[in-house]
Each structure stands twice: as C-alpha cells, then as structure tokens.
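User: Can you help me understand a structure? I only have the sequence.
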Amino acid sequence: MLVVSTLILGLGVDPQRLLHAVGLIGLLLAVFAESGMMVGFFLPGDSLLFAAGLLTYRGDLAAGQVWLVTVGCVVAAVVGDQVGYGVGRKLGPRLADRERSRFPKDEHLAKAQAFFDHHGPKAIALSRFVPIVRTFCPVVAGVSRMDHRVFTRWNVIGGVVWAVGLIQLGYWLGRIAPGIGDRMELVVVAIVVFSLIPIGVELIRSHPERISSPTGKPGR
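Assistant: Let's start by predicting it. Here is the structure, written out as tokens:
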C-alpha cells in the first residue's frame, strides 16, 4: 500500500483530489472494486477512506454526512468481498490452475493463498489491512469452498472495522488538526502503521516464541 499510495501522490493525484473528482459514488465503486473484484488491487483503498473522512468533516463530501459515507463504504466493502467469494466458488477450478490462468497474476493469487492458509477464516478480516491480499483473499476463500456463513461473518467484521476505523480516523483528525490534509505524505505513512497493527498483533499471538527469541528461532 505504501508503494501504491506514494506512486499516486508522486503522480500528483492524491486521494483528496481523486475524491473531489469522483465524489461519493466514485468512492463506493473504488471500495467495491478493490474489495473483491480482482481489478482494483492498484487502488489506494486505505488512503481513500482516510481522505473520505477528512473531506466529510470539511463538508466537501456527501454534504458532511459522515454516517452516509461510513455506511456506504461498509456496504460496498462487504458486498465486494461477497462477489469475490462467489467468483471464486464458480470459477475455482480454472483459477486454481496456475499454468493456464493468466488473471489474476500468479504472485497475487499465491500471496493471498499463503495468507489464507496461515490465518484460516479470520484471514478474511485481517486481509482488509493488507493491500492486494484483500483483493484476492475472498476469491481464494471461494476457491477453497470455505463455508459461506463463516466467510460472511468474518467479511462483515473486517468490512466494518476497516471502513469505520479509517473513515473515523480521517474525520476526527480533520477535526482536531485542520491542516492534516496538507501533509498527505505523512498521513500515508501513518496509515501504513495503522494498517499493520492488526497483522502485528496476530503475528505476536501466533508466534510468541519467535518474537521473544533474539535469533528469530523458537526458544528451548
């Protein structure tokens, strides 16, 4: 995400300008596409949500109705993942054949598969905070025939925490630090740190012995 967001900022198309251009409908479409359609992995979803919260506080998006932006993004994220899951279940055999498949790219699918294998069902929620992985993880869940009710539960949890957390972060930082929008480069770095917190907590819980060992190997 840092690479993608930095590239977009370098091209002069920061999330705020992008949202000014596409509005709320464009934001919802971007969240939907990135969450599970396999075509939005290049979109800076985290930065867009933060910027959406900031612009909503300023009254430049959805007439300042933060509840509308938040609910819309949660729905778009959850529905996007549900569609991705359905695509995976329907096209599973073809997507699983790495030699014949040309899209999605093998490395993207492999990265999502490894993440899913390591974290199990909760990977659906955790992947929200990992760019590229969040786009392909629902498809992998569908290919793996994950129980639909289990997928939906973790999908809703992840969608709510991701969208509400980032939008509210942008909204309240805009309220207490009005000039935050002029320092988007620093904001991107802060979002990276924020996004890595759930993964860091999960790694510590999964491998406490590796964290405590100076060599990175399990202690005796």
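Now, to help you interpret it: Residues 1-12, 99-103, 210-214 have pLDDT under 50 and may be disordered. Residues 62 and 68 are 7 Å apart (CA to CA). Let me know which part you'd like to focus on.
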